[in-house]
Specification:
38% strand; 138 residues; mainly beta; six-stranded mixed β-sheet
Length: 138
């Protein structure tokens, strides 16, 4: 899971997205599984690129690993939370369509920046460690 942030004036904004045509999926941050050939950090960077199109950012830190039940299967899963800082000028909103032949092909991510503290709810406990960001980023 990746908390991608940017500084705007005196504030901090978090990158979130909704899925076009799937409002019931809720507002999310980049997240996904780890491939057998990659580290947790590499997986976070890959998921950000796949889901938002961003590929230039600075890794700030790994906040921690949280164990919780998977919402569909109930099986225990580990979620690694990463903080990444956007390293490029970005618009307030953009649309990113996944161009691939895998299961995410054709999905459209509606990306935007939201100020912290976040007032919109994130799905599936994705906001669990958000309270650490202001202390970490000062």
């Amino acid at each position: 899971m990746a908390y991608v942030v940017r500084r705007l004036g005196d504030g901090i904004e978090l990158l979130v997205f909704d899925l076009e045509g799937l409002p019931k999926m809720g507002t999310q941050v980049p997240a996904g599984g780890i491939r057998s050939t990659e580290s947790r950090k590499e997986a976070a960077l890959r998921e950000v690129k796949e889901e938002t199109g961003l590929d230039t950012m600075r890794v700030v830190t790994e906040l921690g690993i949280v164990e919780s039940p998977h919402p569909a299967s109930g099986r225990t899963r580990q979620t690694s939370y990463w903080v990444l800082e956007a390293a490029e000028e970005l618009p307030a909103r953009w649309r990113h369509a996944v161009a691939s032949d895998d299961e995410d092909g054709g999905i459209v991510f509606l990306c935007r920046w939201e100020p912290l503290p976040l007032v919109v709810a994130l799905v599936d406990q994705q906001g669990l460690l958000l309270s650490q960001l202001p202390l970490l980023l000062g």
